[in-house]
Design brief:
The protein is α+β, with helices and mostly antiparallel strands and about 350 residues long.
Length: about 350
């Protein structure tokens, strides 16, 4: 007999209400009070930072306030997200027994590939790109993050219908700062599904595609349901905490500990803009630019491979990346990529 999972559609809500529901459903799934669930949701304009991120290091608060964009903290990890009514949120609440002994990276890839298949069914060449993106032609149209509560897993994603790259470059602290170059860099890396299709996106069809992709992946049947009384009680309790300043400031680190840095090699033909966490010596995010004919896919995949990379592991990751397949970089060597990162940070180059 095919297992039945619940399908919820909670519609448009504030970031605080959506995050409180994350807490409620995740706790209820851990307690085995509810079946595994697929939830669709929409957000009022918000910046959602990852559970381990600091607001000061990720967000331009003054710009958010000027644009009436709320800042909230997710229960999942990963990068900060800019969301609004033009983004479709989806979430899977699972029990560990439904994914076996697979690690989080494997589970995320499995679900990310299913989400990419749902987007591809609209007529786009969508793919999953680790550690947590759905991309089309090297531009991210969605992101995925996860959280664990006991025996329960939350895989949380967002698919962007219409991208706001200018807005993104102004409200988030991204590599390259907030100038024209940063806006152009954001436009080269992010897109909306509707923008790429060149027509109005049928969100109902996208939801249907996602539901069918997850049903096929897990060999289950989705059945529409409602929130339970237990979930409602958990939600009410969680909302009180999520709406406090203590929740938002759960992680509070100085912006000076996460500078935006830049460097170049080969006479400026290869450049790197990055966010570097000085105390932990971790490259949190990096964007490359090249005036040679390096394929955008190569640069995008390398940027993803170096996300959250300890500085002492950069050389090894670059070497592994270029040894893993035929990735041509005319005018630049693997060592050039290592050197440009070190120069941006101010580290000495190898003799």
């Amino acid at each position: 007999m095919v297992d039945a999972w619940r399908l919820l559609d909670t519609g448009l809500a504030s970031a605080a209400r959506n995050i409180a529901l994350n807490r409620a459903l995740l706790e209820a799934r851990d307690a085995d009070e509810i079946p595994s669930t697929l939830r669709f949701l929409r957000y009022a304009p918000s910046v959602l930072i990852g559970c381990r991120q600091s607001v000061a290091q990720e967000v331009e608060l003054a710009e958010c306030q000027a644009q009436a964009i709320v800042v909230q903290r997710r229960v999942t990890g990963g990068n900060a997200w800019l969301v609004n009514e033009r983004a479709l949120g989806w979430e899977l609440y699972l029990h560990r027994r439904e994914v076996g002994k697979a690690g989080l990276a494997s589970v995320t890839a499995r679900i990310g590939n299913a989400a990419a298949a749902a987007v591809a069914a609209l007529g786009l060449d969508a793919r999953y790109r680790a550690p947590g993106e759905v991309e089309v032609d090297c531009r991210a149209v969605g992101e995925i993050a996860c959280a664990v509560e006991g025996e329960a897993l939350l895989l949380q994603g967002v698919l962007v219908i219409a991208a706001g790259s200018v807005e993104l470059a102004r409200v988030l602290r991204i590599p390259g700062g907030r100038g024209t170059d940063a806006i152009a860099a954001a436009q080269a890396r992010f897109a909306g599904i509707g923008d790429l299709l060149g027509l109005r996106t049928d969100v109902r069809r996208l939801k249907r595609n996602l539901g069918e992709a997850f049903e096929s992946e897990f060999d289950v049947e989705l059945r529409e349901g409602d929130l339970t009384l237990t979930e409602d009680a958990r939600y009410t309790s969680a909302l009180r905490e999520v709406q406090t300043a203590d929740w938002l400031d759960l992680v509070a680190s100085s912006v000076t500990d996460m500078p935006l840095l830049e460097g170049s090699v080969r006479g400026g033909h290869l450049r790197a803009s990055l966010k570097y966490e000085r105390p932990s010596r971790i490259v949190r995010q990096i964007w490359f630019a090249s005036e040679t004919v390096i394929a955008p896919r190569v640069l995008g995949e390398l940027e993803a491979a170096l996300r959250d990379c300890p500085l002492e592991r950069v050389a090894a990751r670059v070497e592994r990346f270029f040894s893993g397949g035929a990735r041509a970089t005319p005018g630049a060597t693997p060592q050039d990529f290592v050197n440009v990162v070190k120069l941006a940070i101010g580290e000495p180059l190898a003799a």
